[in-house]
Amino acid sequence: MQLQTHAWESTLLSLAHEARHQSEYPVSTSFDSAVLDEAYRYCETVTAHHSRSFHMASSLLGPDARRAVRALYAFCRVSDDIVDDEADATGIRSAAMRKTQLERWRALVMTTTPPEGELVALAWTDVRLRYRIPMRYAEQLIDGVAQDLTPRRYATFEELAAYAYGVASTVGLMSMHIIGYQSNDAIPNAIKLGVALQLTNILRDVGADLRNGRVYLPQDELEAFGLCEHQMERGVVTREWREFMKFQIERNRRLYAEAMPGVGLLAAEGRFAIAAAANLYRAILRDIEAHDYDVFKRRASISTLGKLRRLPAIWWQSRTARI
Q1: Reduced DSSP (H G I as helix, E B as strand, rest coil) percent helix, strand, coil of the chain, to 5
Q2: Residue partners of 48: CB distance under 8 A and separation at least 6
Q3: Segment 175-187, tens digit of pLDDT
């Protein structure tokens, strides 16, 4: 099957190529086993608390890969929280303060010898070295989340896709090194799947993002459907909003469909977990539709029972390559 490509993908493929060819792989550092085990347990707790879907999907991996991807998730979560948390015990944190904290975090996770008290950095560093994950991917992720230090708008879907690469596609590309993959042909699929997952996040979180002064929807597409931010802030589902969301969801599903054949290029033991993560997220789109595209007053979700009911079919699809 020939992978369908879009104009915006060439830039993202160049970023992935840059990361793969600018990274060095130092000799793995030996950490105290007891401290390292504590670090991995902490990352498991972070994953379970913040993402039930990811925690469930990662439980389908073998023990080593499972704890590694949960350490990766914790690294991503801390990076994102530094930018998103706008207040601490003393009050509001300025963008400058958050930027300083993010740069400190960047330096911490790029070293090969993080302090033992920095549990997430310690587990992540062990994973990065053990699985030879290109450091540049992690830098690209931090660059991506840094864009949220100052709320901005995205004029086109191409701009939005570039943002999605930084905060989501990089995660998939790093995960591939943990799970294993058969050839570099999996890279375009991983990029596209990351964009699809992030777009689902964006569609689900429209209301919460608006309340935080953020709009991640392409401005030219909002205008094309006769919408503006002032109308969105009213939180009313109009005919124009329904048509706009139908367009967004259709593209989102198309991206999933185009990306999923890449699951077959992953190591066999990791295919079920990745297929589960993607399909459970894709199911959020149906929940949005079932509630008349109202993402202003509610956050779309899938119940634990709903996720469990989907797993047998996803398992069979991952085994027969009908992803």
Answers
A1: 70, 0, 25
A2: 55
A3: 999 999 988 999 9
